[in-house]
Design brief:
By secondary structure, the protein is α/β, with parallel strands linked by helices. The chain has twelve helices and nine strands.
């Protein structure tokens, strides 16, 4: 069965605290040596994505998707790209709409269910004759999009897409949103709200006709924000409708390529519904691993080269599946 019973991730005792695992690498880790070349992908709806390539001349490409209010420059994206570069893969750090330093053109932006944007990225890179094999790695929100996309596609997934790995993923968005609203996560929620509202403030002239900005700026949780901004701007009837239709959990049984989800048991962002061991037991393509520790997008134990456990885990999972 593809449930990993004994995870090999074991942080030192003094580094096992969930909040330390979550916060320390985000604030203090620096990854050097990744040289991006940017390409702008024009989307079918008139918007665009900033795609950052790190090329080694390989026929294999790893696509890395960041989390909420992240970018291709975040340490966890850079570290993953660098690990795959070292193993002989090209890397692509995706910047979701408005996350690459250039404001996007439309009122809509990225969200947890925006798998249509990933589909256009896959079509773009799969159409490049230089690549024979594609792997997708997603973190948190980007992980939900990854798993939703490959599950939606099922047998229709382009043949070049060989594998996928996702870390710290709220595959059941409604219950995870309620977890993030709890007092122990206030520091994270406040930071997300500030960042999201700042981005909206800079685009009021585009967004103003679509939402009640007073209610958006008064939002204190994802329930408020998704009800008053995400849902109306992206065609959902409510926050619940958005969460229900966008959660990757319902698409996991239809995954048809080797895929791995790693969610730490101490991840304070996640609910019990985000640990789908039962789905992994029933789908030979879907592997699930739940280390006791790791926090949210943490897994902070570095090797002699400075790579995190998560980076080595993803590389080893994917590289073992492709011809050499």
């Amino acid at each position: 069965m593809p449930v990993v019973k004994a995870s090999k991730f074991k942080p030192p005792f003094f580094f096992s605290n969930t909040h330390l695992q979550t916060i320390y690498p985000a604030l203090f880790r620096k990854v050097k040596g990744v040289n991006y070349q940017r390409e702008q992908l024009e989307l079918s709806d008139g918007d665009f994505l900033d795609l950052d390539f790190s090329k080694t001349g390989s026929r294999k490409l790893v696509i890395v998707l960041h989390g909420l209010e992240g970018s291709a420059d975040r340490h966890y994206v850079l570290g993953m790209v660098k690990r795959f570069n070292l193993g002989g893969w090209d890397g692509l750090g995706v910047n979701f709409r408005g996350c690459g330093g250039n404001p996007n053109r439309l009122a809509r932006t990225y969200h947890s269910g925006a798998s249509e944007d990933l589909e256009e990225i896959i079509q773009y890179v799969a159409g490049k004759e230089e690549y024979e094999t594609i792997a997708i790695i997603g973190f948190s929100l980007g992980g939900n999009i990854t798993l939703k996309y490959i599950g939606e596609q099922g047998d229709r997934l382009p043949a070049k897409v060989a594998c996928a790995v996702a870390f710290s993923v709220p595959v059941h968005l409604e219950s995870a949103s309620y977890e993030l609203a709890k007092w122990q996560n206030k520091i994270y929620m406040d930071r997300f709200m500030r960042s999201l509202k700042t981005k909206i403030k800079s685009r009021e002239s585009i967004i103003g006709d679509h939402v009640d900005l007073t209610k958006v700026y008064a939002s204190k949780s994802f329930l408020d924000f998704d009800q008053h901004y995400t849902a109306p701007v992206h065609g959902f009837s409510s926050a619940i409708d958005y969460w229900t239709k966008s959660s990757a959990l319902q698409f996991l049984p239809n995954i048809r390529i080797p895929s791995l989800l790693v969610n730490a048991q101490d991840d304070s962002f996640l609910s019990q519904q985000c640990y789908p061991g039962d789905v992994a037991s029933a789908n030979e393509n879907f592997h699930f691993e739940a280390p006791a520790n790791g926090g949210h997008v943490g897994f902070y134990v570095s090797d002699q080269q400075g790579f995190l456990w998560s980076e080595n885990r993803a590389y080893e999972f994917c590289d073992a599946l492709v011809p050499h």
